[in-house]
Amino acid sequence: MAYSHRTVLLEPAIDALLSPAFGRRLPAAVVPPLDGVYVDGTFGRGGHSRLLLSRLAPGARLLVFDKDPVAIAEAQALRAVDDRVEVVHAGFATLIEQLDRLGIAQVDGMLLDLGVSSPQIDDAERGFSFMRDGPLDMRMDTSRGQTAAQWLAEADQEQIKEVIADYGEERFAFQIAKAIVARRESGPLRTTGELAQLVAGAVRTRERGQHPATRTFQAIRIHINEELAQLAHALPAALTRLRGGGRLAVISFHSLEDRMVKQCFAAAAHPGRDQARLPIPERDMPQPYVTLLGRVQADEAEVADNVRARSAVLRVAERTDAPLSLDEAAGFVRLPGRPAPARRAGKGARWSG
Length: 353
Hints:
Number of helices: 14
Structural class: alpha/beta
CATH architecture of the largest domain: 3-Layer(aba) Sandwich
Low-confidence stretches: 338-348
CATH class of the largest domain: Alpha Beta
């Protein structure tokens, strides 16, 4: 069965990588096809990559990453018709290892479109949606790792509570965890429908317009795929491998991810903030590692066409020439909660700072 996918913030994301006017209130100008090395860290179904390729020169290179075998098959099909594409079946947290493997020291731009894609949500067999009954899987990479059903069958009540509270920001995490553990006495949870029904019974009040299982499903998915830990590896890696003037554009869909990106970018843009009141000569203060180019959200027209765009936030930072080590860059990232184991750039978009 084919599943439709509409790429969120398509034009703004590619403008963020390529347009000199992005974030600077400069007059729009035609940008000629660019050379260089670019990275799409979350290929998905290739919407961003295809538009990016259309604006790159014949000598450019595009590395596309994804953990999902279905997405990789799509990427390989694109590679077959465009040899500028290099396909990497791995998560973006492996950026440095993959660049080293390919002999690439620096890149000119990198895009991360975080979270789960529409085809993954719409395919009941993937187990991401509480609206479609299917196996309780939730793995981005179905070829490896523990499923959500397996984790829920083994984790203790405290572990389940912490994951749901930290990654779902769910105030009824204790009640939900207690209900899940009690349910195991009569048999394991095997399907998304069973879990959604159980959570609905444990959540005493519901947020307007939101299914009571929304936060729980988000939390378990983040935990199973180690999404925040992966992001915590990728952000400093990207900052250290961007050449001066190169840009990192990140699209997030929930507050935990967006907060991590915002805090990382702010720390890299103002590394001397904690020393500002000390008697240190300005010449000895740390220089900014990035320039912030703002935040973009989907406009009303895009949200009306694709409701899943309503929570999307695009943040963009441009690398300066200041030297930056991986250890320094890692210090800009803070993981929310407990560590996981192991809005106008384009047409019609809304700007904010």
